[in-house]
Amino acid sequence: MLTVGIDLAAEAARTAVAWLDWSDGRARLLRVAAGADDTLIVEAVMGASKAGVDCPLGWPDKFVDFVTAHRAGHVQVPEGLGRTWRRDLALRVTDQVVHEETGLTPLSVSADRIGHATMRCAALLAELARRGRPVDRRGGGAVVEVYPAACLKLWGLPYRGYKRAANVTELGRLVDRLLEAAPWLDLGEYEELCRASDDATDAVVSALAARASALGLVSVPVGEQAEVAATEGWIALPTAPLDRLVSLGSEGGP
Fold first, then answer.
1. What are the C-alpha distances in Å from 42 to residues 16, 99, 200?
2. InterPro entries given for it (predicted)?
3. What is the pLDDT of residues 178-225, one digit of tens each?
4. What is the rounded CA–CA span in Å between residue 108 and residue 193?
């Protein structure tokens, strides 16, 4: 099985892609590409069994409805709710579930700069559909939305304080802890890049999360959540320890 992790930013300069090959009870990092452009990302997804994308796959339904109503001049604000009514405009259902489950709050796709990355993501999803690989935003198809910080926390690994060049020491400690927790993970010639670039490390974590999704070891939307997730997207949270990624599955697939 080949899984891909994509740490998606608005521009190629901060985007990284990682390829993990799973066979014989091990995961080998075949490649990490920093500065990944759209063409590379699409080709990576097309060639993978599963791709984990660290970026929202959609906007909150209530935000879309709000903007549509505002354009037409028909916005109606609920009475007596103060500022709380804006929560559902800023956060998707999956964002609120992640907060409930992990205590972490994903960036708001409608009220933060991550919206720029999501615009890029929307174009990538359209291109994948054009090539015959449409994306199920609930995570059931070729692509699953992931959140590296939440994955790391749920796997008992450091999940804060390793971003940006000023925190490269903490990033190195995270890589140390990851390799201790997953002795079956071989970063090969790309280990130094992972120690120097949080984008590269997040791409690797996203590829690990993609494997978890392929094996059914992640949360999935249920009931009304599933209907909303079809348009908003769904962050797949790991539901099993890290070592289950190699204790299940075989060389050929899940």
1. 13, 30, 18
2. DUF429
3. 999 999 999 999 999 999 999 999 999 999 999 999 999 999 999 999
4. 29
